[in-house]
Write a structure and sequence with these properties.
Order of helices and strands: HEEEEEHEHHHEEEHHHHHEEHEE
Radius of gyration: 21 Å
Bound molecules: alpha-D-galactopyranose
Distance between the termini: 9 Å
Number of strands: 13
Helix content: 40-55%
Shape: globular
Strand order of the largest sheet: 5-4-6-3-1-13
Strand content: 15-25%
Structural class: alpha+beta
Length: 387
């Protein structure tokens, strides 16, 4: 891939002399959904697919961007003096947001850059193509200008830019999973204090299969921010009678005791999901450590039911994929992954059942929804690097 992007870089910008090549992965979350802005646990891993980038410093303050995924847009120009979110700037709002966020942190970017990207994460699929672009941009700035920012801080800067430049109130999971990824490991992260632990994923002959619904999802326009607000309101209602900091502080039993403090029924369901999903994630990691893959899969299935019935972020496409998956012999667990409202599902499937899985889930989906789903058997990869 390095040769491909450097060759294209030379074609687009005249020469690739002095250009450097980088990579940041995408991510998939195995369990712990919509818990990361509720002080709960998540369990994502980085993938071997992601965003490739070539970058080179300029003498002036100009920024030039080119994406091989959006070739028809050509070179998009901007400048370090114009780091402002603009609708018409399209995908370049992500790298520009990170440059802006570096500035907010006191890192002064001394000169402009020519940047070229080529991603192999299906975009809008819920595998964090945007967080991958954010982290690769942060990594480029760090390497080109020697800022010495840690990978964990690259994650926080990426999230800060997404929240404050691009207006999506996302949690820390995606950027953290990408910046801190470790081959063959998932990251058990406590979002309350960012303490984390790597857990080797030994699936004993099973594979991680991503089913992509091909229903596009724009986080900004979705109900993501609305869910977050519902949880915040529910928390403040509980806090009137109990000293907790986040919904992640509650056990299921404690929640059942205080839940009537939440006035609205829908809001109560949202908070229930946040509490139960967090506890499920803790149990799932224990199950994995005890080599109980069957229990891990069962908890994944329960996670989906909770996201469908209580959090209400699945929708017909994701439900069709998951419910079809549950019927296939050799499926250990299956659930939606990421924000929901379209995007992907993640399934743990015994190796010998993978072909049958793709065939039957694919057929059921096409018949019910009217267009095809895509399937990817993925591997767990590492965090960002220079190529
Ligand atoms: C999106 C957000 C994450 C997280 C998930 C849901 O991917 O970016 O922070 O909230 O949704 O678990």
């Amino acid at each position: 891939m390095k040769e491909i992007i450097l060759k294209k870089f030379a074609e687009v910008y005249g020469s690739a002399e002095g250009a450097r090549a980088f990579f940041a992965p995408g991510r998939v979350n195995l369990i712990g959904e919509h818990t990361d802005y509720n002080g709960g646990h998540v369990f994502p891993c980085a993938l071997t697919i992601g965003t490739y980038a070539a970058a080179k410093k300029r003498e002036d303050r100009k920024l030039r961007f080119f994406s091989m995924n959006f070739e028809h847009l050509g070179v998009i120009e901007s400048s370090l003096d114009d780091l402002v979110q603009r609708r018409e700037a399209g995908w370049t709002n992500y790298p520009k947001g990170v440059m802006w966020a570096f500035g907010e942190r006191g890192y002064e970017i001394p000169c402009g850059m020519d940047i070229l990207l080529n991603g192999n994460i299906p975009n809008g699929s819920g595998l964090s193509s945007s967080a991958s672009v954010e982290v690769v941009t942060g990594y480029i700035l760090n390497e080109l200008f020697g800022f010495g920012v840690s990978n964990q801080d690259l994650a926080l800067i990426g999230q800060f830019s997404e929240n404050n430049f691009n207006g999506v109130n996302c949690g820390i999971m995606d950027q953290f999973a990408i910046a801190m990824g470790k081959k063959d490991n998932a990251i058990f992260l406590d979002t309350a204090d960012l303490s984390y632990e790597y857990a080797p994923i030994k699936l004993e002959g099973a594979k991680i299969v991503i089913s992509c619904s091909n229903k596009k999802r724009g986080l900004g326009s979705s109900k993501y921010n609305e869910r977050r607000e519902e949880c915040e309101t529910a928390l403040s209602e509980i806090q009137q009678g109990m000293g907790i900091n986040t919904l992640g502080d509650l056990t299921e039993k404690q929640f059942e005791e205080v839940k009537m403090a939440i006035k609205d029924e829908d809001r109560r369901k949202r908070a229930k999901h946040a509490v139960y999903e967090n506890q499920r994630t803790i149990k799932a990691v224990e199950a994995l450590k005890a080599n109980d893959i069957a229990l891990f899969g069962k908890l994944m299935n329960e996670s989906h039911v909770s996201l469908r019935d209580d959090y209400e972020v699945t929708g017909e496409e994701l439900d069709t994929l998951v419910e079809a998956a549950w019927k296939v012999d050799g499926v250990i667990g299956s659930r939606m992954t990421g924000a929901g409202f379209g995007g992907c599902t993640v399934s743990i499937v015994r190796e010998e059942a993978v072909d049958e899985f793709i065939r039957t889930v694919g057929e059921t989906y096409k018949a019910a929804i009217g267009y095809a789903a895509d399937f990817y058997v993925v591997e767990i990869g590492s965090g960002p690097c220079e190529l």
